[in-house]
Amino acid sequence: MTSTAQGPEHDVRELDRVTIRFAGDSGDGMQLTGTQFTRTAAVFGNDISTFPDYPAEIRAPAGSLPGVSGFQLSFSASDIHTPGDAPDVLVAMNPAALKTNVPDVPPGGAVIVNSDAFTAGNLSKAAYASNPLTDGSLKQYKVFQVPISTLNAAALEGLDMTSKQVDLTKNFFALGIMFWLYERSMEPTLKWIDQKFGSRPVIAEANRRALRAGHAFGDTTEMFHETYRVPKAKLPPGTYRNITGNEATALGFLAAAQAAGRPLFYGSYPITPASDILHQLSAFKSFGVKSFQAEDEIAAMGATIGAAYGGSLALTGTSGPGLALKTEAMGLAVMTELPVVIVNVQRAGPSTGLPTKVEQADLFQAVFGRNGEAPIPVVAPATPAECFSMAIEASRIALKYMTPVIYLSDAFVGNGAEPWRVPSTDELPDISVPAAVKGDGRFLPYGRDPETLSRPWAVPGTPGLEHRIGGLEKLDGLGTVSYDADNHHRMTVLRRDKVAGIAKDIPDLEVFGPDHGELLILGWGSTYGAIRSAVERLTGEGKSVAHAHLRHLFPFPKNTGDVLRSYKTVLVPELNLGQLWFLIRGTYLVDALAYGRVRGKPFRISEIVDEANRILAERS
Amino acid sequence: MTDMLTPPEAIKLTRKDFVAEQEVRWCPGCGDYSILAQTQKVMPDFGVPKENIVFISGIGCSGRLPYYMNTYGFHSIHGRAPTLATGLKIARPELMIWVTTGDGDALSIGGNHFLHSMRRNVDFTMVMHNNRIYGLTKGQTSPTSEFGKRTKSTPMGSVDRPVMPLTLALAAEATFVARTVDTHTEHMQQTLEAAGRHRGASFIEVLQNCNIFNDGAWREFTERDVRDDRMLVLEHGKPLIFGKSRDKGIRLRGLHPEVVTIGENGVTEADLLVHDQYAEDPYLALILSRMFWPEFPVPVGILREVDRPTYSDLMDGQIEQAIAKSGPGDLAKALMAGETWTVE
Fold this sequence. Notes:
The complex is a heterodimer of chains A (620) and B (344).
Chain A: E1 2-3, E2 10-14, E3 17-25, H1 30-44, E4 47-53, E5 68-76, E6 89-92, H2 95-101, E7 110-114, H3 120-125, E8 142-146, H4 148-155, H5 163-167, H6 170-181, H7 187-197, H8 201-220, E9 226-229, E10 238-244, H9 245-260, E11 264-268, H10 275-282, E12 290-293, H11 297-309, E13 313-318, H12 320-336, E14 340-346, H13 363-368, E15 378-379, H14 386-401, E16 405-410, H15 411-415, E17 417-421, E18 468-470, H16 485-500, E19 511-512, E20 517-524, H17 528-540, E21 545-550, E22 552-554, H18 560-564, E23 567-574, H19 579-588, E24 593-596, H20 605-619
Parallel strand pairs in A: 2-9, 3-6, 6-7, 7-8, 11-12, 11-13, 13-14, 14-16, 15-16, 20-21, 20-23, 23-24
Antiparallel strand pairs in A: 1-2, 3-5, 4-5, 10-17, 15-22, 19-21
Chain B: H1 32-42, E1 53-57, E2 72-75, H2 81-91, E3 96-102, H3 103-109, H4 111-119, E4 125-130, H5 165-171, E5 176-181, H6 185-197, E6 202-207, H7 219-222, H8 227-230, E7 231-233, E8 241-242, E9 248-253, E10 256-261, H9 283-290, E11 298-305, H10 311-326, H11 331-335, E12 340-343
Parallel strand pairs in B: 1-2, 1-3, 3-4, 4-6, 5-6, 7-11
Antiparallel strand pairs in B: 5-11, 8-9, 9-10
Helix pairs in contact in B: 1-6, 3-4, 5-9
């Protein structure tokens, strides 16, 4: 195919899938640039998957290696599960961005650089001894040197702006080039600029000009010989939107409150990468959502328990270090058997760790991390869009079983985005539970439903049900303080059995691929995409490999043991050093193999394929 | 006043309605018995149905109080009672909430929550039993213990300086700040009643005796035979006068209060400071909060009572404002927010 639209003649190549990475200084607006490209691709109808990767520092020294911020996205004409192992195109806004990102680009890949940024000063900040654009070190790539800063400044000439303000718009020039290269409409972004900068016409005009100038540059330069076309993906029918995991989590809980017929309370203390959920829920005031920014993590948990005691669907959200602080109060929620949901958007630990990077190493903390026998159900969404339904599921379990529930998301699933088929509100399940009211006879605050073992939810304001609860052990039934030895044993067993019984009320573990065979790859949480892609590749090669992905981690679905025993080998890839692996070995006596990686990054598909092949070779 | 405080039909309850079945288990002679008794006594006066009253406590001897009140009650964990009370009040502004705490619970492990619940003006009443000792853990120094106090954990004397709870409460912007004494039963009833009727964060320090681990904690100035000379009962609009023969007073000299005798050196009643518990600025209350035996008589009563919107007023106001602006939230619309596209 050729095109001669306006500029020089160029070829058009159709691709099934493209992975782009935008990288620049953390002040260069790379997250925004990536998000704009993602929206445009999503609205066009591609399947998409994104991986924002940003530093913990808000503004590390300009041009420095630690200050590099990246945003990778994959868009495709077919179903995809990950943001791609390696970028086909890297857009590097400065030497530091080039240096930290170019090793991920495969030989032959395209690298577009802002050549203006390759000054002696910036090269030295990036610890380049010589200029990589001229010393031949990039010869295995297709390098496009574009003086983005200069061209952009020329396009903005005449606007009443400082040179610094002008420079801040150069990311849209780069975005314009990419829109041209991938034949994307500028309209969604132009619309966004109008909305965003409506009250600041000069800034709006500058961003419009930057975007159009980048696009026009692509069209007129003879640098690029082809553009690329990625057709629409064939997704199931429906209305779609692009959504991040944290957005889907917030919407899921909003929907859950409606499905439960309860007011929504969210108590939280700001922490990366969970703060977005606080921001989202704080914007839902017209729904009556009460969001409370507490003085600390403990207060957020305490207030959540207080709101649950008052009859709200009550949640708190945090990340690992915050969960550690909430631990004692979570035990109180176990003892008082109140329905609260604790969202943990995991990040790399221990301690402060890598605050903006992904890890799945809080599974032990979620399952075990409390004093005493304190079982708490644990669920984990596998993809950004799935966060919506898992938020409802977490709420359902909390309300039906009168228990705290931990919802384990992570930085990758929380910040990543994908298209989401928007459900109709009629599709929402009914998760309402009755309020306790005064009946005949003595009220038993710890009387139990024979089916679920859950206790009544008697909220203040209900006449005749005045009672006292607390962290001290309760007398079975009556709920008064009891130090009786046998009663403590009985209550401990009851609390265990109540949570264990949830296994009867959750979906079976599903298997993708053969229902028995050589190798089962078992995962949980955000590793879903990489594992599923790896298994698709392996089965495509005729290997006997299946994938099962746990959404319920405590208790496990009741068929889990049977599934695990249907394969010669079980491999458990995790972004930790073997926590699910340990749990399934302990629970099912299955001699599974761990594959743990804690690099602050999601798995690459190829890592899992290679590990599976290694095991298959070794065990055949 | 909220609807809760003026129910459509007057509710006739008595002290007995507020007495729970549970056997009271404090050490015989503990000051907590009196605090419980006065609390049960004043409860009917509010006219609030008992199902709308919640007592929330932390850990310590004071933490047991909710078990003895026949209302809703929550015995939580150490220092965190204000957090539960805040969440409950946000969720259910119509409830009347009391937080029962102690000097260790409120000022040590729960210091942060004390500060923030007060500055937010969450509408609850915090009653702090101050016995200057850790009782339930059997006698260690507390944040209000005297400097140099010998306890099991400080055998050579505490090297921690004590905090002044009332000064802290004022600094934290509490809108009602008062002090009373466990053995001064009528005064305690009046103070509890005033605090219960105040809308906003109320803080009462009750000077309480622990006859097991810190007997005579406040004896020097609270005993019947000396208290008139060593304590100062605050009354709004009245000059600061004390003493058995009502001849002593407090005068301001520059920035410093001083004890003077009326009739000596030409001092008259007109020279004395006049109490103003409703003053918008906190200076007088701050001065009073720093006065303590033996340099000064110990003030009891209401130091400060000001009217400010409560946390729930403001939060619910924003919700109403949002609904007035854009109508009640529509879930279907929220799900479809942003750009959407349709796949046939």
